[in-house]
Write a structure and sequence with these properties.
This protein is mostly helical and 143 residues long. The protein is built from four helices and no strands.
Length: 143
């Protein structure tokens, strides 16, 4: 992160605003069959804010028949509406899809997509086509 320079014009020292020992971290322990590899027992119990045991969320077939094909119609701009839906639920429940759907929504609302990786660009291109019914054109803004 960046801090503003001091009154003398000197660059500010890069120091975290919160001491390291007060930072909050999230850990996810997956695959209970390999729990002997987990480091959960090395975490100080007094430092744990919350424990939540989760299961892998998956969609039923109805999601892929009813929701996914209709996302392009839901995300099409109607009149002066600038509402688009984003989130992993719009396609498959993956963190990557949550990020890509946010990028696609920003692109549709007029933000420029800055290409940083061929694979990512291809994923954004396919997501725009599937969930927005829009073809991605590098260097062009689409609304």
């Amino acid at each position: 992160f960046r801090q503003e320079p001091t009154d003398r014009g000197d660059p500010a020292p890069h120091k975290a605003p919160v001491p390291y020992e007060n930072h909050v971290f999230q850990s996810i322990f997956l695959d209970k069959t390999n729990s002997h590899l987990w480091t959960i027992d090395s975490i100080d119990e007094s430092k744990i804010i919350e424990k939540k045991w989760r299961h892998q969320l998956g969609h039923r077939w109805q999601h892929y028949v009813r929701v996914v094909p209709n996302m392009m119609f839901i995300n099409r701009p109607l009149r002066d509406t600038h509402t688009t839906f984003a989130g992993s639920w719009t396609l498959v429940n993956m963190h990557e899809m949550a990020c890509v759907s946010g990028i696609a929504a920003a692109y549709r609302l007029g933000a420029e997509y800055e290409v940083f990786d061929d694979f990512a660009e291809d994923l954004v291109k396919k997501y725009l086509w599937i969930s927005h019914g829009v073809r991605y054109r590098p260097g062009k803004k689409v609304q």
